[in-house]
Predict the structure.
Amino acid sequence: MMNPLASRIRKICVAGAALVVLAACNGKPKQPSTEDVLKKLRKEQLSTGCKRAPIEIFLQASPYLNQNAKGQPMPVEVRVMLLKERQDFDGLEFETVWQRGAEALSADLVKSASLTVYPGKLKIYTMKSTPDVGYVALIGIFRKPPADGTWSYVADVREQNKRCANKDTLHTIVSAVLRDNHISKPEKDSDDVDPKKDKAGK
């Protein structure tokens, strides 16, 4: 038969063990939900910044680019504008974009650059992007800008730019072809300009 002191000690030990177990159970971390994990990742992304893939611009010029009065090809300035939206740009005339484009597009313009493209040459230029860039406008400052609006070409990069850079999205490519006094999207499956086709007016 257990003496009263031993019995009391045993009861205290049992009670203490039960409290330890209960505390351990209550202290067990709650398994985070998928929503909690996504919120945490989003918070970390906002705090560290989402690194956007740079925009790489390829401008292929025809040998008959921007011809002068004697029919001689001339270099042309191409202005690159990274825009949030394109509606205001689409409503502008060439003279406005040429003379005060930054002012007229101040609400949408994220950043810009000016490039010189030479006849028959390929110009490659890389620009850093930001999360709010949706469009890349390419404007050719031609000697005789065409009345049909083909002095500019606008590429939609919303889908590419909203993804963060990773091993599969090293850069966002925007390509254009410059022929005489026109700038446009390259023909499908064709990276080069055919001089004969270009000289004959397509």
